Amino acid sequence: MNYAKLREMEKLCKGDPQKMARYAAAKSDYDETIAAMFTEDSPIKFVGSPNEDYVKDAEAHAAKTGDADDISRAAILRDRYEAYEDDKTTHMDLRTTATSLRAKLLNGDELTPKDVRDAWRLAKLNSSLDNQALYARVKREQANPSERPPAPGVVKVTAEDVEAAKEAAQRNPSPAVMARWINTKREYEAQAEASE
Questions:
Q1: Nearest to 118, CA basis, from 12, 10, 1, 3
Q2: N or C: fewer beta carbons within 10 Å in the chain?
Q3: What's the domain of life for this entry (predicted)?
């Protein structure tokens, strides 16, 4: 099991006893592998969050010795390094997913089971109220397409609308006015991305 998958299992298992049990078993297997591969006597030491130079040194040592255990150790370190590097772009992937789903809802596009899975994953990995509400709405509208409101006509949110909502929020920063500004801004951004 690779480290990125194990970490995702941990984030996605919350609230589901079966998934929690699968995660616990997978983590136990992973930890046992680490303990068996990286002993006090092993030439390559385990680093939980290795940098690229350390990984390259471990790979060079493994290539030099040709030992299967050294090759495995280097592969484990490479996997952990790549998992932490992927974390740096995960938030961008989640934001792209959220924007895409909001655009589908705004345009009245057909929602698929994959959209529901993507919204669920988004809500699990970044459980903000917005993402949870997005998941609930995508799930509801995908399950009951006949109850979906009709796609909006040619009503477009303009940059002037966003600016006016922003000015109103600056004058009166109440939660309702701030929410109106944020929603206007999101609709404008979704329209801009949908038209690209």
A1: 12
A2: C
A3: Bacteria
